[in-house]
Structure formats: C-alpha cells, structure tokens
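Input record, target 12 of the design panel.
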C-alpha cells in the first residue's frame, strides 16, 4: 500500500508536523516513518489505522478502553487500584490539534 515517494517529498511530509506522527503526536525519526495520505505516521498508527479512513480510525481508537476492559484483566485491576485513569474525550488527532481549531 506504500507508494514510492521522492526523498524530497518524504522530507516535506516529515517536516509538516516537525517530526511528529500526524495522528498520535509521537516523535518519529527521519529514517523510519510511514506516509499515509500525505501525512507522516509512526509505525503503531500506521499498523492500527491500516487501510481504514480517518473517521473509522477515530472510532477504532475511541473503542480501545472497552476493548482493554474486555480483554485485559491486567488493565481491569490497574483501573480498580487507580493506577490508570481513563480519559474519555473525543479522539483528536495531533494534526487537528496543530491546526489550532478550537471546536466549539
Ligand atoms: Zn502515531
């Protein structure tokens, strides 16, 4: 699914968010990042998003706490003991935050 991009294009995409993944905001290296719809992406986001569109990816992300509660007893007990705290705000991607739009 990866199209061949000229090194200069990759560089431009990399620079777009200052070396951060456009989705999660993680720092990415120049040598090792993915390009998805002209956005730089870390390996985790690229794998998780796969070929889904942005809104499907957002829905998938917002379901992670349910999935963890369902599938991970470690997560459940960590919740119970107050070691993790869920933050159930709508998922906002890094590039959306960077655009600085304050919705509402
Ligand atoms: Zn990411």
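The sequence produced for target 12 reads:
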């Amino acid at each position: 699914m990866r199209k061949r991009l000229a090194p200069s294009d990759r560089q431009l995409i990399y620079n777009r968010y200052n070396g951060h993944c456009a989705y999660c905001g993680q720092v990415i290296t120049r040598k090792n990042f993915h390009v998805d719809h002209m956005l730089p992406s870390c390996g985790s986001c690229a794998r998780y998003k796969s070929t889904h569109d942005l809104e499907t990816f957002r829905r998938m992300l917002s379901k992670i706490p349910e999935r963890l509660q369902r599938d991970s007893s470690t997560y459940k007990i960590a919740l119970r003991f107050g070691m993790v705290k869920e933050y159930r705000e709508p998922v906002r991607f890094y590039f959306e935050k960077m655009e600085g739009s304050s919705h509402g």
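Residues 18 and 96 are 14 Å apart (CA to CA).
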